[in-house]
Amino acid sequence: MVGNAAEEGLLGQIANPSHGDPLRVVALASFVAGGLAYLAVRWALPALTIFGGIVVGLAVCLTVAWVLSNWVRQRRQARLAAELEMRRAEQSVETEARIAAMKRAGGPTT
Fold first, then answer.
1. Distance (Å, rounded) from C-alpha 83 to C-alpha 81?
2. Whether 57 contacts 41, CB under 8 Å
3. pLDDT at 4 over 70
4. What does the alpha-carbon distance between residue 65 and residue 26 come to, in Å, rounded to a whole number?
5. Alpha carbon 21 to its chain's center
6. Who's near 71: CB < 8 A, 6+ residues apart?
7. What would the pLDDT profile of 51-79 be if each residue is shown by its tens digit?
8. Residue 14 DSSP symbol
9. CB under 8 Å to 68, separation ≥6 — which residues?
10. Which end of the chain has a smaller Cβ tally under 10 Å, C or N?
11. Under 8 Å between Cβ of 96 and 77
12. Could you read off the pLDDT of 8-47 as tens digits, one per residue?
């Protein structure tokens, strides 16, 4: 019964929109970068206390998260702006075609 429940739980998560969220990758990348920074600074500076290593790792983690999240948001906004511009261009062409059709038909142009 446990296998079926686990399988049903996993199948239910396939369409979960949060699984496609790029900010989840940002969180993982920043955590890994912070952990590696902690290990590197503790190896390079053995006299540094554990607390000092944690501070450096946390600073790296937060910096990487901030930079990557800004980059992801900018890409998302640029993609949305391009999509809206394409939609506006399509609607403009459609409007011009309708106006031309009304002029040919002799209908009102106001």
1. 5
2. yes
3. no
4. 6
5. 6
6. none
7. 999 999 999 999 999 999 999 999 999 99
8. T
9. 26, 29, 30
10. C
11. no
12. 666 666 666 666 677 888 889 999 999 999 999 999 998 9
Residue 2 has what pLDDT? 55
Q: What are the structure tokens assigned to 35, written together?
A: 């952990």
Q: In the prediction, which pLDDT does 105 show?
A: 86
Map 28-96 to HEC letters.
Answer: HHHHHHHHHHHHHHHHHCCCCCHHHHHHHHHHHHHHHHHHHHHHHHHHHHHHHHHHHHHHHHHHHHHHH
CB 60, CB 34: distance < 8 Å: yes
How many residues are present in the chain? 110
